[in-house]
Amino acid sequence: MGKFIFTVQGEGRGHLTQAISLSQMAQEAGHEVIGYAVGSTNNRKIPSFFTDYIGDKPLLQYESPSLCYGNGKAVQVGKTALQAFSKFKTYWNSASELAHFIEENKPDGIINFYESITGLHQWRTGAKIPCLSIGHQYLLLNRHFQTIPEKKLDQFFLNLNTRITAIGSKKRLGLSFLPLENDTQRNIDVIPPLLRKEVKELKSIPGKSWLAYLTHYRLAEDIMAWSKLNPDVQLDCFWDHPIHKEIFAYSTNLTFHPINAELYLEKMSQCAGLISTAGFESIAEAMYLAKPTMMVPVPNHIEQMINAFDASQSGAGLAATSFDLTLFKDYQKEHQTDYSTYQHWIQESSRLMDIHLRELIQPDREKKSAWKSLFTKRINWTLPKNNGGLSMPKI
């Protein structure tokens, strides 16, 4: 059994939630997470759902690259790229902070949830500590993955950043909605989404209200406008707003909530459908609870555009380009998807992650024989036609 430090990209809730999920799986398998390092921008406060979970475990927070939105709703690709150069000295100091934290806690291995400072640290130190990188973004590097044909330049920069985060990693694990062939040539294995046990224990019940999750508060303007014209639809929306830190009742049918993991999951289990900015984790949770999803990527957010395409092909729901919720209202009348294949795929995550954690900290001379014996126990996820038996939604 091993002792690990988790390094986590702190923008949004996705990677933080995945870190909690893997912490639970690792503990159940007999491993130990001895510390957490979270990268964020401008000393952004780490959400309480994460700090409450880790308790008194050592926690390091440092400055790390993030997306730039400017004064509008869209991601500013050029400004985001320029940030890496203009603040390089700051990020170099962050890598020094991480190095000190790792040296102080002496882990057997590092588990990296798409945190770019981790790649910089591994490059600086010569990857003395074995590292494993996890994220849906690594699936995009898998040659078997089908992506969108648009925005090739944006995809190039996204994949470049993904490779930077994984510098010095012994393996990259790509989170996938459905089973996909491993890419052994590029050292990328495919694993299911990492869902918290709290999600798996929920009982999904049919509901009438809709649930929304926004990665950027400015995107709420369109939902506000639509809700005024459709007072018959009840909406609960979760956001991270700089001013509205408490529950904000915008109208009788639209209520905004600060990010709260427990309340969010409770409302998801009881909602009629999820409206999302196409973050991977929210979609994965909704699929497990058999909730149809409307996915509206943040403008110019190439990763979310790919997420929406991939998820719609996997039967999650409707991919759209704007928050015209009338589309979702019509879509729900004909949405038909069998989520059983996906739910069965999710159940494999704990077993597969235990294999990868053990393999990471084994001496090199033992790995070949260990993998040979473990591989024979892995399920052959050969997909039948029509995406693993999922009936495709009509869009």
UniProtKB/TrEMBL annotation:
GO terms for molecular function: transferase activity. Keywords: Transferase. Gene3D superfamilies: Glycogen Phosphorylase B. The keyword Transferase applies. Pfam families: Glyco_trans_1_3. The keyword Transferase applies. This is Glycosyl transferase. It comes from Aquirufa beregesia. The lineage of its organism: Bacteria, Pseudomonadati, Bacteroidota, Cytophagia, Cytophagales.
